[in-house]
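Could you join me in thinking about how sequence relates to backbone shape in a protein? Label the sequence line and the structure token line clearly, so we can match residues to local backbone shapes. Once you have written the record down, we can walk along the chain together.
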Amino acid sequence: MKKYLSNLLILCILPVLTIAQKRTQKLIYSDDFKNGTSNWIVEFEKPETSSMKIIDGKLDVNSSVGATIWFKEKLSGNLMITYDETLIDASGVNDRVSDMNAFWMATDPAKTDGMIKRDGKFSSYDNLNLYYAGIGGHYNKFTRFRKYNSDSEKPVLKEYTDAAHLLVGNKKYSIKIIVNNGLIQYYLNDELFWELKDEIPYKEGYFGFRTTISHQQFENFKVFQL
């Protein structure tokens, strides 16, 4: 009887906790991609053969080599970043199911202010401080998570090679990234892919979509303060 009452109490408390957590989330930025690309700065490794535009309320990025699309606003504090992403696989020249990647809390130690500026080539970001998720990298062979240090060290902290953690073309993915008092989490379709309890966390920086040789579309970008 005592065990039953204890379990019942836990079940009653859990919804209350969930509601309390939601109440602490404050939407601070959003982009439904209906009003152009003014919130974003793109760095294409080869801009002459790549494009970024709005198609049917989606941010469409078609990149022949490396590309980073930075959100213009610098973020800080405890955050949750959410968005939807689809890798287009329709026989286009860059329709490669690979590299659904992201940078977040990115800063350049060599600069005291202003946006990060690089050339779109993946290695050009090696001397930044940031967190990195690489989903289905290297022709969809593995998924990796890293923490970059500005001394060009970027150790792999978690890696998957099984099909369940790789990509499927033309499938919409929901991404959720959480930064909360040193706890770093990355969710894909509500499944926790990566968790890091960082003793020396990055507390501010820029967010960017990252990819190479692919055609991707983004929707429903939101940033919440926690």
Q: What stands out?
A: The longest strand covers residues 204-225.
